[in-house]
Amino acid sequence: MTSPHSERPEAPAVRLIATDLDGTLLRDDKTVSERTIAALAAAERAGIEVFFVTGRPARWMDVVSAHVHGHGLAICANGAAVVDLHGGGTFLEVRPLQRPVAVEVVRALRAAAPGTSFAVELTTGIHYEPEYPPFFLDPGATVATAEKLLYEEAPGAAAPVIKLLAQHPGLDPDAFLATAREAAGDLASFTRSSPTALLEISGLGVSKASTLALCCAERGIAPEEVAAFGDMPNDIEMLSWAGRSYAMGNAHPDVIAAASGRTVGNNEDGVAVMIEQFVAEAEAVRNG
Question: What is the model's pLDDT at position 4?
């Protein structure tokens, strides 16, 4: 399954590949396959930049840090951070969710969806409410109400909030997202990437797409020269922005609707399949 874009000779050459990680570049066991590793290296040799654009925080990027090649950059936390993986995960840019706004969001969601629990992802780590079910227990985490976690005695003195996480034990994931956007969509950006009712909340206007657009503009790369890959709702804006966009074979129905094309699933190396095609296109152009 490939995009109709790949069959159109008038389409601009791909200069940058933007790919999600979980459910997209990574297999379900969270590994990068040998075929994908080879494809990423081939893209680098062909002069095609690859950006990992993920909902993951910088501290969860070890799985791909060896494969960023020349530039070393990744877009993390759904666009809230640009990180230098060659520099040990150094934050180069942060687009934070302001703490007073985060408190308003918490209050709005508590009213709209009783039973919601929260976690606060900072540039320095994650902290939880007692009811929040963390993916991994962090021994350095503070456990307290979200309002306490977000409180700062001196405004602006605490670590930036890069993402607020909201979990509900009983709601349908898509219904929870719709409810949250209705309740507080004028305060922040809401999305999701988990199969459970877990929302990821960023500053208003912050998304994978908006940060990727800034990075591409800095490099003089137009949207038409970008190929993007994703599988979940947090990829939709990025797929809609890029000139070529591919939903994985395992993608959410809304992602399939947003993308201009499809590739095979993440366990079948769907990203690598298309990278190999882009590299072949680049070689054909060079060889006349």
Answer: 40
Whole-number Å distance between alpha carbons of 146 and 46: 47
Among candidates 55, 1, 42, which has minimal Cα distance to 247? 1
pTM metric for this prediction: 0.91
Q: How many other CB atoms sit within 10 Å of the CB of residue 202?
A: 28
CA distances from 160 to 80, 109, 149, 178 (A): 10, 21, 12, 26
**C-alpha closest to that of 122 among 157, 86, 71:** 157
| Cα distance between residue 101 and residue 36, in whole Å | 40
112 and 182 Cβ atoms separated by less than 8 Å: yes
Helices (H), the chain: 34-45, 99-112, 146-150, 173-184, 208-218, 236-241, 253-258, 270-286
Q: What is the mean pLDDT of residues 30-34?
A: 95
Q: By C-alpha distance, which of 72, 75, 52 is closest to 163?
A: 75
Max intra-chain CA distance, the chain: 64
